[in-house]
Design a protein that fits this description.
This protein has 315 residues and is an alpha+beta fold. It is built from seven helices and five strands, in the order H-H-E-H-H-E-E-H-E-E-H-H. Strands 1, 2, 3, 4 and 5 form a five-stranded antiparallel beta sheet that branches.
Length: 315
């Protein structure tokens, strides 16, 4: 049965995954403390970042009932009465953009609203653009009360600044654009998105370090174990082998020349790997028929007569 290249790759990935799981389980005494440290670091990062609270408010600009023009010959009572909410035009949207630019000026933020560059309090004011004459104010601070109070302060400043700008332009009072708060400062809500992102990044980084520490420790411990086993095997082999007896040179054969090289049977050349060759087996010659014949003495055959003592030897 043939296995495709993609199938082999998937099998290899599963084997790598389960191999990593087995390594983490085997070295749990390294992985577990490292994981606890990673969780502790992530929790420390989350708690070290102060929680920010955010509140919002919306201001709408309205035009006067008499419109943007004024004639001295017509009294305000005689002018056509118009619902201001139906008098929206692009001029009000432009005015809201002007107010947003004034609020973004660092000099205005510092001198009029008391917000320093490194202050924990901050706000953003954006105009409605072509969507309508709205001014959206969003403030954030370390406490919910400060955030709500900052939104109120900015909307009051918008009303005052709008009147000052029209007065400085010497516009008739009957044509002044007015501002109305349509959304009061909302209850400040905790913004923990940034804290969660920083804590998550710290946790992921520490888990990567935990994995590296676990696999690195596994490699070091395996290397030390192999070296220890190799040393134990060498010691056991040395203890099992008997002590070698000292090798004494053979006595020189008769007729050895002064150079020390014996004259006699030539020695076989050494093997190619340095070991001496085994001697060739010796074959004993077959006995002859005469040697194989069993010889038995003939019957009646006697040996030489015993020597008896002579007369002169008698006492």
């Amino acid at each position: 049965m043939r296995v495709s290249t993609q199938g082999k790759r998937r099998i290899g990935e599963r084997m790598d995954f389960w191999g990593a799981v087995r390594t983490l389980r085997r070295r749990w005494y390294i992985a577990l403390p490292s994981a606890i440290v990673a969780v502790a670091v992530a929790a420390g990062v989350f708690l070290s970042i102060p929680t920010r609270y955010q509140s919002t408010g919306v201001v709408v600009l309205t035009s006067p009932a008499a419109g943007g023009t004024f004639s001295e010959n017509v009294s305000p009572e005689e002018a056509v009465r118009v619902n201001p909410l139906l008098a929206f035009d692009s001029s009000l949207s432009t005015t809201s953009q002007i107010l947003a630019q004034i609020l973004a000026d660092p000099k205005t933020r510092k001198e009029s609203l008391g917000i320093e560059k490194d202050s924990p309090d901050n706000f953003v004011a954006t105009g409605g653009g072509q969507a309508g004459p709205f001014l959206f104010v969003t403030a954030d601070s370390n406490t919910p009360e400060t955030a709500e109070r900052l939104v109120t302060t900015v909307m009051e400043f918008v009303t005052e600044e709008l009147d000052e700008q029209q007065t400085s332009l010497k516009a008739p009072a009957s044509t002044f654009i007015t501002s109305q708060v349509i959304v009061n400062p909302t209850v400040a809500e905790a913004q923990i998105g940034g804290k969660v992102r920083y804590a998550g990044a710290a946790f992921v980084l520490m888990m990567l370090l935990t994995t590296v520490a676990t696999f690195g420790g596994d490699n070091v411990l395996n290397h030390l174990r192999r070296r220890r086993e190799a040393g134990e095997v060498g010691e056991s082999k040395g203890a099992d082998q008997p002590a070698e007896a000292p090798v004494t040179p053979p006595p020189a054969a008769v007729g050895t020349p002064p150079g020390g090289v014996p004259v006699g049977k030539p020695q076989p050349p050494p093997h190619h790997n340095g070991q001496p060759r085994r001697p060739a087996p010796t074959h004993r010659p077959q006995p002859t028929a005469s040697e194989q014949t069993v010889k038995i003495a003939a019957p009646g055959a006697r040996g030489p007569a015993p020597a008896w003592p002579a007369n002169e030897d008698r006492p």
